[in-house]
Amino acid sequence: MNPQLRRLALDLGPLLIFFASFKYLGIYAATGAFMVAELAALAIGYLAERKLSPMPLFTAVLVMVFGGLTLYLKDDLFIKMKPTVLYAFFGALLLGGLCFNRLFIKYVFAQAFDLDDAGWRKLTVRWGLFFLALAALNEAVWRMTNTDIWVDFKVWGIIPLIFLFALAQTPLVIKHQAPGKASGGGE
Predict the structure, then answer these.
(1) What is the pLDDT of residue 2?
(2) Global pTM value
(3) Residue 116: which of 54, 26, 73, 178 has the closest Cα?
(4) Cα separation, 132 vs 85, whole angstroms
């Protein structure tokens, strides 16, 4: 299987299992299914790549902690907070890294494309701010709506937003191709 498609399936699979489980079994069964699916995705990813990538590993840890609290305390507040913590962490990591001249986003996208330093910086700022906006949006949705709407939004709102945002970065990526890497001219 294509490595990018496998990574997409491993990233989205647990979320889709959560969604389907919620629709048929409720939030607590869905949380348990999500936890199992997240661990399975982590194991499959490890078997395929022979390494644990930091982002999926961190996500799995958060799912275990917040899912465990949800199930133990019988309070869905915790599973609703998990995306906020995840997005806020990613946003703070990216933007905080810039303060120390670290472009952490390169670790995620370096295999997909090669940019000049200005491009990596701009992409880091954009993704950092986007993740912070997602954290705020998740907070607003779970606090102002019921669980059914939040679950629908988590799957059918957040995922399309991420894809659209990534697609919107294409002009920046094309403009800032590293010298010698651009197909058709670069800057």
Answers:
(1) 80
(2) 0.89
(3) 178
(4) 10
